[in-house]
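Quick one from the shared queue. A colleague (R.T.) flagged proline dehydrogenase as missing a structural entry in our internal table.

Convert sequence to structure tokens.
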Amino acid sequence: MFEQWMRSFFLFLAGQRLLNRLAKKVGLHLGARRFVAGESLSSVIQVAKQLNDQNLLVTMDHLGEFVKTNEEAEQMANHCVKTLHEINHNQVKGNLSLKLTSLGLDLDPEICQKHLTRILEVAEQNQIFVRIDMEDYTRLEKTFAIYQALRPRFSGFGLVIQAYLYRSEDDIKRLSTWKTNLRLVKGAYKESAKVAFPNKSDVDENYRKLIRLQLAQGNYAAIATHDPQIITYTKQVVKELNIPLDHYEFQMLYGIRPDLQQKLVAEGERVRVYVPYGEDWYGYFMRRLAERPANVAFVLRGVFHRKA
């Protein structure tokens, strides 16, 4: 019960724009630096290369969720293009992740699609994969619509499917038409019980079902988890279905379970680290605190250590 309350509390804080603006002024303090690889592009490139040196792949995400004008959306698109060029220039073994709200999805879906088209053109030229992060339920159909519109032209981009949504199994079957490369996650937004499983055990069960479904359909699966039981289950399915190593990967968040990341690499698994950066880190940080009480404990230790 306490964990559910804590999750709801931090998810509520994640959506507070005033706190987001204040966080930008404060900078990466109070533990956020553990989960966010700096505020500049140069800082994330440096971190990405260090992870590559450890035989870890990366996907880089310039954080930004609360664009209020078309000009801000264009600036975010420009930054994505710049990031792609820097990935190529520095020979980083990595992809780009982005949120469509940062490209103006809530302002004008047509403008958002225009920005994404430009990004995908540059990504294709540089042979870099682009992952569209899935956001809350209210943006799901808009995201699918843009994907469906651009998929006939571009193949080097994919989506995220969230296991806590009732509809996700049907969505995976629907997306199999395009052989969609999917990142499979449990889900990090607060959703109504009308659209999402309220109980963790049901989410876990559905997650396993979705992993098997995506792999059985022969489509690439990025299993985003730090859960050893889910990892073990995935390995069992891979062995049972005789899935090649280049048809799936494990993904983990920057700053969380680096020991497990290295263990999987040593076992010969493909592991990709999701590396976020930028000044607009607040919402992402709050969702990480909502996910695991251990993350909150880490931050509190950091606060008292700074005061000591």
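DSSP finds twelve helices and eight strands in the chain.
The chain has a mean pLDDT of 86.
Added to the table.
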